[in-house]
Amino acid sequence: MKDVSHIRNQFPILERRVNGKPLVYLDNGATSQNPKSVNDAIVEYYTSINANVHRGIHTLSQEATDAMENSRKKIQAFINAKHDYEVIFTYGTTDSINLVARGLEGIIQNGDEIIISELEHHSNIVPWQMLCQKSGAILKYIPLKEDGTLDMQVYKNLLSDKTKLVSVNHVSNALGVVNPVEEIIAEAHAVGAWVLLDGAQAIPHKKVDVQALDVDFYAFSGHKMYGPTGTGILYGKEEILNQLNPYRGGGEMIDTVSMEKSTYAGLPFKFEAGTPNIAGNIVLGKAVDFMNEIGIDFIYEHEQELIKYTREQLATIPEIVVYAKDAPGSGAVSFNIQREGVHSSDVGMILDKLGIAVRTGHHCCQPIMSKFEIPGTVRASFAVYNTKEEVDELIKGLKMAVQMLA
Ligand code: PMP
Description:
Number of helices: 14
CATH superfamily of the largest domain: Type I PLP-dependent aspartate aminotransferase-like (Major domain)
Protein name: Cysteine desulfurase
Radius of gyration: 22 Å
EC number: 2.8.1.7
Strand order of the largest sheet: 4-10-9-8-7-5-6
CATH class of the largest domain: Alpha Beta
Bound molecules: 4'-deoxy-4'-aminopyridoxal-5'-phosphate
Number of domains: 2
Shape: globular
Domain Aminotransferase class V: 24-394
Function: Catalyzes the removal of elemental sulfur and selenium atoms from L-cysteine, L-cystine, L-selenocysteine, and L-selenocystine to produce L-alanine.
Helix content: 25-40%
CATH topology of the largest domain: Aspartate Aminotransferase, domain 2
Oligomer: single chain
Catalytic activity: (sulfur carrier)-H + L-cysteine = (sulfur carrier)-SH + L-alanine
Distance between the termini: 34 Å
């Protein structure tokens, strides 16, 4: 297993004790911790730049604008977008997906079809239900199989010339399953449909190249990739973003405004109405620097080893059932103590007493839980600073929980 002590040193929060025990933070799928460089950059921004972007002639405003646009360029390079104006600053994955769903109003027509999957986070379900209600379009679901993977045969059968959009996650937050997105995109494009990938759980863990994927939209959050909350990105292909309607009106996103009507600015500003999260957007660039310095390949390989080790160790506890245990995994492992009357939150509470932070419940993925006929799971989710020793602590804690909940 790789030595990550030099990385851990950059995360002061990992030195905390919780309930008298050293913190073992395994809730990175919900939000990852920030390195000192990111936290320092937030203070630095408010201490020495703080000004509104894009509208000022004065020095501070220009510095803030340059810093934010520089961050946009870093993110462009990070995901290999063709142009920086294809990178839209949003407030998170949820906001990015809503931007597309609202932007498609008037484009998606009665009788058109949108395909999502049973493996989605609620933020990749509800906006499409809302769009379908408004437009009369039909929402179809790729079924989830028992092994935690999508039924690709059914997917192929669902596709037709009525399909206008396919929107699925790149990696599932609830099960940690990596979806076959290349195939999903190719099949959708073959019928002329656009594809949105919810990359919230992929971008912190693996290389994402939007041009190689040939994906039409890619959505992700800053706070799951060592960056601040309230930041996010929507990547979209230029020619498609140009067709979408802006979903929020206001300052910054206009070209001209008269009493009767307005014309809109070009990309990316058309979608960035109002004062953005300037500090957050700038500092997201620092999170990208942090990931680049470590290297996405290092992050990927280290976390793959953690996933493999966790799955192996969980398999030694007979009372534990692991979901999607043989599926291609990334970032997270989901499991339960399989015993009548034991809820995932019981396990989470015992682990918390031991200083171990995991997430329990339905993970905003109720359709998956109904498919598996369970109320929830325990999810351990990883970042590059996690260690094999922390997995050992988790396993020790789970063995204790098995005894206590007998
Ligand atoms: N999609 C997935 C797969 C996620 O894991 C999450 C966050 N749990 C979201 C969407 C929503 O992200 P946010 O709350 O940052 O908007």
